[in-house]
Amino acid sequence: MTQALYQKAKDFVLHKVQVGDWKPGDLIASENQLVQTLGMSRMTVNRALRELADEGRLVRVNGVGTFVAEHKPQSNLMRISNIGDEIAARGHRYECRMLHMGRELASMSIAAAMGLATGTSVFHLLCVHLEEGVPVQLEDRYVNPELIPKLLEQDFGAQLQPASYLLQVVRPDEMEHIVEAGHPNEQEARLLQMETNEACLVLLRRTWTAERAVTYVRLVHPSSRYRLGSRVKV
């Protein structure tokens, strides 16, 4: 079968990246330059670049150009990880911006997720985690006050993150992870500095100890900057 022209254009760009001619963060040749170099139509080249951007290989910025995507960090899906430690292990600068800390009455959905009665008092935290000044995770967490009574007294930041503090106080014996693909709402898009039509990865995590819910957290990641995965022996 004859290879489609747009696939040849994709292969040309990927080869340039693989051999190091275009490195992560580099501005690649413009559409017009690629049209001339490859002898293809602008529509064909545009489709190739658009698909590579959808696959996370390129980043297209309106009015500026197309860039080689940076390598996306990966979080281990099979354990409770501390994103601050992950970022530090890569030798990058980590920052945690706490946006909200308070006590509130659990809504029907939050109560159901934590196995509590609707209206039960819970702690609510909202924070953004940044790598080299770029938001990579939005943490929206609910915590059982009976198990973590001093949560709101903590000074969370670069030196102490909610996840690490929770593990210091209570070691859960059961955990559930659910991964969803979707789009951020307006608040999430604003806090993560992305568009509402951009794809995001959402990790829903619940933990229990002695069959009592410890925490329910929703972690939102821009899919262009982050990925979730794991490696286990089988």
How large is the share of residues in beta strands? 25-35%
CATH overall fold name of the largest domain: Chorismate lyase
Q: Regarding CATH, which class of the largest domain?
A: Alpha Beta
Query: Got a strand count?
Result: 10
Give the oligomeric state: single chain
Distance between the termini: 38 Å
Taking strands numbered 1, 2, ... along the chain, how are they ordered across the largest sheet? 4-5-6-9-8-7
Instruction: Summarize the amount of helix as a percent range.
Output: 25-40%
Whole-number tally of structural domains: 2
Number of helices: 7
Structure overview:
The protein is α+β, with helices and mostly antiparallel strands and 234 residues long. It has two domains: 5-68, Arc Repressor Mutant, subunit A, CATH 1.10.10.10; 74-229, Chorismate lyase (3-Layer(aba) Sandwich). Helix content is 27%, strand content 33%. The protein is built from seven helices and ten strands. A six-stranded antiparallel sheet has the order 4-5-6-9-8-7. A hairpin with a 2-residue loop joins strand 5 (121-131) and strand 6 (134-143). Helix 1 (5-18) crosses helix 3 (42-54) and helix 2 packs across helix 3 (42-54). The longest helix is centred in the N-terminal third of the chain and has 14 residues, at 5-18. 24% of the residues are buried.
